[in-house]
Known about the structure:
The chain is α+β, with helices and mostly antiparallel strands. The chain has 17 helices and 13 strands. The protein has helices at about 1-30, 45-55, 105-115, 125-135, 155-170, 180-195, 200-210, 225-230, 235-245, 260-270, 320-330, 335-345, 375-390, 395-410, 415-430, 435-445, 450-460, and strands spanning about 65-70, 75-80, 85-95, 120, 120-125, 135-140, 145-155, 250-255, 290-295, 300-310, 350-355, 365-370, 465-470. The strands form 3 sheets. A 6-stranded mixed β-sheet has the order 1-2-8-3-7-6, with helices on both faces. Strands 9-13-10-12-11 form a 5-stranded mixed β-sheet, sandwiched between helices. Strands 4-5 form a two-stranded antiparallel ribbon. The protein is globular. Strand 11 and strand 12 form a beta hairpin.
Amino acid sequence: xxxERTRLGYGLIGLILLLLLGLLAWLANLPPRPSAxxxxxxxxxARLESLARLNGEPPVHRALNIQDWRTAEGARVLFVEARxxxxxxxxxxxxxxxxxxxxxxxxxxxxxxxxxxxxxxxDATAIAEGFEGLGAQFGNGAYRDMAVASLRSLSDxxxxxxxxxxFREVLGRPDFPADAxxxxxxxxxxxxxxxxxxxxxxxxxxxxxxxxxxxxxAHPSDGDTESIAPIGREQLQAFHARAYSxxxxxxxxxxxxxxxxAEAMAAAISAALPAGPALAKxxxxxxxxxxxxHIEYPSQQTHLMLAQLGIARDDxxxxxxxxxxxxxxxxxxxxxxxxxxxxxxxxxxxxxxxFTPMQVRGPFMINLQTRADYSQGTLELVQQLVRAFIAxxxxxxxxxxxxxxxxxSFPLSTASNADIVGQLGAIGFxxxxxNHLEVFLQQVQALTVEQVKTAMARHxxxxxxxxxxxxxTVEQKPLPPPTAPAERPAVTPEH
Length: 495
């Protein structure tokens, strides 16, 4: 039996090799393929040739011809024509995130979640079946600054027009049915109970309160039990009328459409939205007082979160800070924090840092988990590493490596129409230049060690962190000394 299986295995391997050799011979004898027309992607062997021609160089970033206009009602439109696929992606971005909640935390998220739960004559099931029957996809979501609604559909008018008609109903005429409202509120209330069992979530909520104080960014986007439970249909209708107006929207369009078709689509969507002005962005948050808050929680690990105010999305230091953070803690296993805290000491499975730029100054944050009895020493180590990085800046090798990685991965930011429509939404919402992506790449390529060091020192105060820990109070142990990864003792956190 063993010999038979062996012979059978060798036979299959031989068959596979013959097939591969045949395929290679076929590819070698194909005639040269002419270059694809402008705007079309090469396929088959031509694509293999183009990859070979890269010769180790990073792929070229896809240049975007962004067209920009406003509708009669005041919505800003950004459009990129892309004829490669017979479909389009549409994304509406509203200044309708939780920063607009006012005295009712969670109102923005609940309003957005209810958009596709019912329109006159159609319930949630009919809406879902309507999109599905047309081969279209509807999406929505709400965050701190913004709320979004998206549609992906075939560009064939027979599919496109009914999909757009249903999309306009969902965005312009939601009726917030009582049964759906009760169901979604119950789901949210159950989620609030679940997050009480998550020390990481508890630490995150406490950190935002400490960092932002009375600012709208302080409260959780999904609200809490006290705020969500009493929300009624009238409040949702009022928020929709105020925050989902055309003048408060950015319409991003990418796909198999002409300029005239895109203009007609944007005009029809804009006209279907409520009338009203754009909403003002929130005021700038006040810097918090540094300090440590501990949340007692029974576990073997402690969550550590450090934060301070970072930057707004339009800050001129954005590129330098993005690259500097990749070196400090945003770049995974090659980053300083990961190397020193995980690789050399085995104190955590992962440690990450990052800026979250928003309409006004968002957080710069560092987070990790470590063994409870090493938590104090680990916190001190992280603070020392940040202090050293701010004082010394990156090395020339770190900067070169970070640039190479970023430039090599940057084409992925516009690799698909869905990626592009997301970029257009951000450019429009944060009022960035239309050539923002190209400028960002040029800025990254030109950055020096001194420029990155200066930008990081300008925006990060090593002594200015708000710190929240969540875990048990236990006797602390001294940290193990740093070692090479192969010599590291087994002191990784226990799970």
